[in-house]
Structure formats: C-alpha cells, structure tokens
Amino acid sequence: MRTTSFSLEVLALLFLTLIPWPGPSVFKITCSRDNSKIVRKVIQNKWMPVLERFQVKLPLECPFHPARDIFAPQHAAKLQHRASQWTCAFCGKSFYEERHLDTHFDQRHKNQINKAEDAVCLADYCDIMRCQVLAAHGLLSGAGKPVTDVEVWRDLEAARRALAPAGARGLARAPQRHRQRPRPGSPPAPDCPRTDPNADNPESEEKRREENEGDTNQTAELCDADTVESSLPPDSRQKRLADLQAERAACDPLRLQAIKVRCEKVVHSCIATLLLHLTQHQFTELEEEMQRAVCWYLSCDRYWEEAAPAARAFPWPLLLALATGLALALCMCYYIIWIVFEYMHYY
C-alpha cells in the first residue's frame, strides 16, 4: 500500500514537471506618452519656479515627482546635442526629431520604464492640466514654430513650392483674345486644357497652337499645382481649434467645478509634507500660487485661455544706468560752467 502511494506521488511529480513554467509577465503600457509630456512640461514651467522661490523641492509623496513618472527612465535617456539631434542613451542611436526618438523607445526599449508600485501615469491628470487646450494652442510643444533644422528647411520648401513658377517675358505673354474675353465670377481653371467647339477647323487649331505655344508649360504646372493643393488634408491645428470652440459652446460649469475641487485636493496632498519646512503663512502662500498656476483656469470663463500674462520685472539695471548717466552729465555741466566762469572772472 505504501509502495503504491509512493508510486502515485512520483507519477504526479513527473506530470507536474511536464507543465511549462509561466513566462515573465508582460507589462502593458496604456499611458499616453504625448499627454504625459504635456503634464511634465506644465510641472516644469508652472510649479518648479514657485517651489524654487520658496527654496523647497517637490516631495516624493507627490504624484508629479520625476522619480514616480512611468516614463522617467526613457525621459532621462533623451540626450539633445543640438536642435536637430536627439540621441538615445540606451543604444546610442541619433534622431533629428524628438518624436522619432519616442517611437524608437516604444519599439526598442519599451521595457525601460518605471515599473514600481507607486509609478504614476502623468496623462491621468490631463483634465486638470488642460492638455487639450495647451496642445491645440501649441504653447508647450512649440507647435507652429520651426525649432529644428529639418523643420526650417521644410517650411522654406513649402514656401518655395507655394509660389507659381514664372517663366520668361516672352513665354508669359498672354494672347490678345484672352485679354478681351470677360472673366466669369468663379472660373474653375480658365487656362486648363478643355474641349473647344471650334476644334474641327484645322486653320483655327493651328493658330491657337502658335498662340499658346509659349505658355503651355506654365499653364500645365499651374493646373497641376491647383490639383495637388486641393487634395491636401486640412490643417490639424485648425481642426483642433475648431473642436475647442465647439466644446467651449457646450461648457458644463458643474463638471469644471468638480475638476477644480479635485485639482485643489491634489495640490494640497502634493505639498502637505512641506508644512514641516515652512511656516503656516508660507505654506498657504505656496499653495495659493500653485493653485493659481493650474486650478485657476478650471472654469468656463478661463478654461480656454492660453496663459496668464506674466508680471514683467521692473528694469532696475536700466534705471540705475540712466541715473548714473544723468549724474555724470550734471557733474560735467557743473564742472564746465565753473571753469568758464572762473576763466571770465580771471580776465
């Protein structure tokens, strides 16, 4: 009996060894990289200067701390040598745009992310940071402005191709019959090839061929350019702005009020531990400034504003230079007048 039970245990153990060992768990990323980048830039541009002014740092308990960002390792691996060169610190490959480097991270280094339990997806706070508004206006990403060598070259090429190619004076001369013909309200393409009812007359056909021989190439290029231009897709930025206008018309004050309350709670919990390093007055002032930088916009009147006008610093160096120059000028005038009167008194 004991031998039989022992044999069954051995058989069960052998059967378990045939079961394959479970492989490593796959960590699937559902966090938007673009929205996380916008939130990261808002923190850097809006909150970090306020914290530096109070001489404190963002606590680790704050979900916006750089060490808790799920894309922190990849963001730290971005090396920018110049405006048009981004290098991956993991493998050393270089790219001429940051978005290509982000695609490289998704394809080659997708496991180089923050897998800690307290890792935070910054894109989850896009409703607080107004990612859609900032992305549409291009305030943080620099949209609409050429910041790389390739973008500058691309804009120049687009501007060059947008101009109609001008031929020589002899080729660009229009026939007399084209000048006398009245123009309709919105002709589709007056010089484009079309069917003529007088095409059966060989004499008139030969005359027209001689008259149009000079501007045939120019007409063809213009017609082709119109065809290509009409087939281009609409500007995505203008589409985003139109969508924002539609959402602005359908604004829900109660929803934005709930988002604003959540924003204030996030700010308070983010800097709660700084109360140990600041006085009550300083902590209250810090909290108000951080809320004014982000939560202040969460209303139907201010949600679609681009940015609050920054207070211009008073030009103290310029005022000091003007005062110094004025003092020197008065001294020189007094000295010259004193010498002149002394000279006249002497003689």
Protein described:
With 347 residues, this protein is mainly alpha-helical. It has a domain at 33-121. It is built from 14 helices and 3 strands. The chain has a 3-stranded antiparallel sheet. β1 (78-82) and β2 (85-88) form a beta hairpin. α2 (33-53) packs antiparallel against α13. Residues 1-25 form the signal peptide. Residues 166-238 are annotated as: Disordered. GO terms for molecular function: zinc ion binding. The chain crosses the membrane at residues 316-341.
Mean pLDDT: 74
Q: Low-confidence parts, pLDDT < 50 over ≥5 residues?
A: 141-148, 166-172, 185-200, 213-233
- Main sheet summary: 3 strands, antiparallel
Describe the global form: elongated
Radius of gyration: 36 Å
Strands of the largest sheet, in order across it?
Answer: 1-2-3
Share of residues in helices: 40-55%
Our measurement of the CA-to-CA distance between the termini, rounded to an integer number of angstroms, reads 145 Å
Label the structural class.
mainly alpha
Total strand segments: 3
Proportion of residues in extended strands? under 5%
